[in-house]
Amino acid sequence: MKKIITTPRLYLREFISEDAEAFYRLNLDEEVIRYTGDKPFASIEEARDFILKYTAYQDYGIGRWAVVLKETNEFIGFCGLKYLREKRYVEVGFRLLKHFWSKGYAKEAATAAVEYGFSTKVYPSIYAHTDVRNTGSAAVLEKIGFTLQKEIIYDGVEAFLFKKDNPYLSIKAVDSKETYPVRHPVLRKGRPIEDCAFEGDDEITTLHLALFFKERMIGVITLIDRRNPTLPFGRQYQLRGMAIIEEYQRKGLGNLLLKESEIRLTKALTNIIWFNAREKAIPFYERAGYKTIGERFEIEGIGMHHCMVRTLY
């Protein structure tokens, strides 16, 4: 039994096969699953089979966790984080046995799960979905700081999309040499620290942005006032040195630096961002709205690249 989170009255742990009977009862209650789109398990054994085949913990390091009362060690429902692969973000969800509604347990468990997602897993944002008729769940989300984004169709039904941003993340401008602790291990690993310097780093028009998790710098990006001769139009800035410390990669944090760069350059009346992207990074930038132009080429000592561009306005 692996405990993940402890709160004043609860603890959240990974599912175990012994949860099958309580899980079966949870999904058997029509009121509990009214707005979930789920069907009851056909039997306790089907619930046990679901638990034994549940691989989210191994696949993503997160998942739905059993919510257990500290005082009695009683399973009262589940709460946790789920990675939605098709949407490329994490959501929080919760479901409790009806007997334990209106006691603040859903709020307590969801607050702890979201805090774990922000402080331990360092997700930039966490989302949540509720059926538009599910006023109870919407109220819990609003109480723990989620804000309504829009109405969507989720699993074929009308739903509200909620979101909360990580309060431990911030972006600020830094000097060129302050970027080296991130540039060096990510972009120039094994090479002299002097190789972290870029042409144009110290121009007055150059902007260096750093992403901080609490007090630690975990990502950087540099924007240089430079025209690409194959793009003879508009005010242009070149993006260079985009890097996220390895342990914080694949969480969507690079998008925060990209979006902040776009906001600042748009305000400065720059309408073109361009850069030379490593081949392995192209899918990331394409998802962010950038397009490749021209033929691929090699940068000596670094590898194959493609020029990418985005028009801001």
Automatic annotation (TrEMBL):
It holds the Pfam family Acetyltransf_10. Residues 10-167, 166-313 form the N-acetyltransferase domain. This is N-acetyltransferase domain-containing protein. It comes from Gangjinia marincola.
